[in-house]
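request received
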Amino acid sequence: MAKRPAPTKANLFKAQHELRFATEGHELLNQKRDVLVMELMSVAAAFMDAEAKLRDSMDGAFESFIPAYLAAGQETMKRVFASARSEVELEVAERAVMGTSVPEVRIGLGGEPLFTGLLDATPEMDAAVTEMGSVMGCLVEYIETVATIWRLATEVEKTQRRINAIENVFIPESRDAVTWIKSVMEENEREELFRRQLLKRRA
Amino acid sequence: MKIRVVGDKLLVGLFQLAGVAGTTPATPDDTAAVIDDYLADPELGVVLVGSSYAAQMGPAFRPYLQRRKLPLVLRVPDREDQAGCADEIREYLQRSLGIRL
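response:
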């Protein structure tokens, strides 16, 4: 049990103020958690869509790439990979949801698009390169939604821990302090009244 | 930030066409070692792991997937296994936050 404060009026006002503050904070944190959970659910739905789109686009890319890969052979594929565009870069910006920053991801495609050379170019390879363009678009959405889900989930957990701390520790302690100070002050008042009455009777 | 891919030759080859480099590990232990190496690289933002390779790692893959700081580790469908991250995320949200999708 927390140490009880001295039963004075100043401490009573302080404890009452803390109780009001904790109750308001509890209410606000509850609202914040509800908004975050709603946002989390909508991002989770977007994530499911993004995953389905990624799966479909990768299916299409594999359909084109596998025949091209098998027909070309190791040496040709090495040449093709050597001529592939320079590395893609992820660009991450931030936006805020209820004070929580969530990522906005973009992919910066580096260098020139793939050039396979006239001898290595097959329709399947060209189709695979084109399909990979749409895979990368879906991948951006996939990465962004997963990163957002983890950020929001972390924030929901943090908010829930704060709500629990206020609900189970801070509010009961403040309420206990207010009740205790009030009861001691009332007891003191009764003693004082009794003393006065006794003095009056003796006088 | 850069992206890396870990998976079979087809998956790595496919992503190489788009300018994403990668590695094909021989065993599940190798997969974990490759992912650990990538996670130690401060220039990386995302590590994509082929679904069949992630499945071979079994429960050892879950901590990677639930990693919340960059680089993120994501499971992507490959030729043998079409699963993504949905099951793990759904299970995590239900177990830890009580949110049912």
